[in-house]
Amino acid sequence: MCLFLCLLLLLSTVSRPKVFSIILSCGNYMNGGNRQRGQADGFAIDILPKIKDVKSRDNSMTLLQYVVRVWILK
How far is the CA of 15 from the CAs of 11, 28, 42, 74, in angstroms? Predict the structure, then answer.
């Protein structure tokens, strides 16, 4: 039930810009050492399914889990 409610909130029009902003910020941070890609103004929509495959250094969390955690805490 909790997962279902989180999905509904993530899909709402109010939450979508906030989630996209978190994803963009994470991508800019991860590409920070690269002058060409370090401060992007946006990202392609085809990147969204891939965020579940990006893992932390210690493999304890995916980028998707991190985005949801940051979104809930804000």
Answer: 7, 20, 17, 11
The predicted structure's pLDDT at residue 1: 55
Is residue 48 included in any domain, yes or no? yes
Range of the domain at 45: 15-73
pLDDT attached to residue 70: 92
Q: Is there a domain that residue 29 lies in?
A: yes
* pLDDT tens-place string over residues 52-71: 899 999 999 999 899 989 98
Write down the pTM of the prediction.
Answer: 0.71
Residue 6 maps to a domain: no
